[in-house]
């Protein structure tokens, strides 16, 4: 039950219109790219009245950040996987799987992620959204590092927050290169190399 059974007909209609606009937005951004996409094109494809898109979204940047949240959900789910290893080997296996799933999720949304990359470079609103996404991942990684440090599996001299940033930025850079086709290595090999580098330095 999602609570929609308690909504009025008008509220349900508004939810559907919003969903239509988001779906239309995705199609227009994929076809035109971020810079060339317009709210008029999105409105037209969604078959909504003139200017209706502005009732739900301030501008195309606002609509796009909403789409980004949907796209990132798969990656959030990966980051939220339980991480309570009892050995270095167990930690390695879990980190390897998380890294592989993170990269796989981005490749499954490759075309949209290309538009995200473009949008980050030209929209302050989208860039801020991406920075918020980064911060969310880094907080989660920091928490995981603190856990393994307290469990005696990792070197406690390391600054957990700093290492978390380094680990995320390294993964982010590789992710963009995979999405843009600049790395053609096997996904498993890429994930294994990153994980060996990370765990080799952090873990005892």
From TrEMBL:
<dbReference type="InterPro" id="IPR009057">
    <property type="entry name" value="Homeodomain-like_sf"/>
</dbReference>
<keyword id="KW-0238">DNA-binding</keyword>
<dbReference type="InterPro" id="IPR049397">
    <property type="entry name" value="EthR_C"/>
</dbReference>
<dbReference type="InterPro" id="IPR050624">
    <property type="entry name" value="HTH-type_Tx_Regulator"/>
</dbReference>
<feature type="DNA-binding region" description="H-T-H motif">
    <location>
        <begin position="38"/>
        <end position="57"/>
    </location>
</feature>
<dbReference type="InterPro" id="IPR001647">
    <property type="entry name" value="HTH_TetR"/>
</dbReference>
<keyword id="KW-0678">Repressor</keyword>
<dbReference type="Pfam" id="PF21313">
    <property type="entry name" value="EthR_C"/>
</dbReference>
<protein>
    <submittedName>
        <fullName>TetR family transcriptional regulator</fullName>
    </submittedName>
</protein>
<dbReference type="InterPro" id="IPR036271">
    <property type="entry name" value="Tet_transcr_reg_TetR-rel_C_sf"/>
</dbReference>
<feature type="domain" description="HTH tetR-type">
    <location>
        <begin position="15"/>
        <end position="75"/>
    </location>
</feature>
<dbReference type="Pfam" id="PF00440">
    <property type="entry name" value="TetR_N"/>
</dbReference>
């Amino acid at each position: 039950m999602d609570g929609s059974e308690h909504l009025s007909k008008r509220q349900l209609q508004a939810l559907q219109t919003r969903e239509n606009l988001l779906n239309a937005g995705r199609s227009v951004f994929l076809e035109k790219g971020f810079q060339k996409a317009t709210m008029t094109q999105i409105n037209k494809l969604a078959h909504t009245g003139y200017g209706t898109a502005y009732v739900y979204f301030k501008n195309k940047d606002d609509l796009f950040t909403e789409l980004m949240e949907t796209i990132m959900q798969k990656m959030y789910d990966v980051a939220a996987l339980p991480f309570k290893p009892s050995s270095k080997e167990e930690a390695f296996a879990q980190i390897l799987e998380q890294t592989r799933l993170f990269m796989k999720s981005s490749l499954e949304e490759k075309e949209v992620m290309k538009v995200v990359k473009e949008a980050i470079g030209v929209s302050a609103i989208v860039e801020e959204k991406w920075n918020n996404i980064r911060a969310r991942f880094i907080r989660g990684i920091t928490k995981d590092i603190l856990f393994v440090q307290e469990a005696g599996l990792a070197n406690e001299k390391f600054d957990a927050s700093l290492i978390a940033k380094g680990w995320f930025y390294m993964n982010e850079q590789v992710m963009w290169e995979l999405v843009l086709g600049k790395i053609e290595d096997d996904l498993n090999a890429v994930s294994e190399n990153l994980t060996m580098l990370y765990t080799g330095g952090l873990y005892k």
